[in-house]
Amino acid sequence: MTDATRRAAVAERAARAGGIVAKETFREPLTVETKTDKNDLVTAADRDAQQQVIATIQQEFPSDALVCEEDVTVPGADDVEIRKRVPETGPAWVVDPIDGTANYVRGIRFWGTSVAAVVDCEPVGVATYLPAERDIYTAGPESVTCNDSAMSVSDRSDPETFATGLIGWWALKHGDPYTDLFEAAAGRFGDVRRFGCLQGSLALVAAGGLDAGFMPRTPHPWDAIAGVHLIRRAGGTATDVHGDRWHHDSEGLVVSNGEAHDEVLAAVREGTSVEAAD
After folding, report:
1. In the prediction, which pLDDT does 71 show?
2. Could you give the CA distance from residue 148 to residue 263 in angstroms, rounded to a whole number?
């Protein structure tokens, strides 16, 4: 087994383990806290799931860097640092214990646990597990799958038939620009949806359920690295809002099946006044 194959297997195992922990309290009474604003939510389930993900990873890779959404202590390893940025060199694990916490606390099934194994800033194995939906999306050196079946992006080429996703988040004060973006997309595509779970939405693009997705703001690495890798491995395209190849600190994120990516970029530019790269 190669190192990349091993890391991909651990990513899947860790995502499943964290998702199982989170599912134990799904639709149970919860104490909900806020972080940066009243709509940025966190629960004990987020922290418990992250601890389980980390514990699973550290069974195999105890010295690797950890890039995680939540600030939690690691049982038995209090000196472990939780980072917020992906290191440029060496191995690291990028973890979102519950992507879609707002859905989770409302009893909406579309939420998931996402784990990406990266080496020198490039993903080598990822998994996004949606326990309540009973779906797991994985990508490793040999395969890209949904529930162990090979998957690929859609083959639609007519933008007017596209189902697209407005992904990511926004604060209330940024409402007007997002209204412009929605209107620009609605005028070009057959459907515009928002699911409230960024990694889940990216997985839908990889599996062909959505044809494209877009956000003008830079996502956190734990919100996007796994999903972008799924899309690329499934044959799709991921760029920043200027059309350049997406990197984890790029401006915005635009993903598609690759058949009409320029049209998706055009909608984002129209809705946000973003200019194309030279």
Report:
1. 86
2. 32
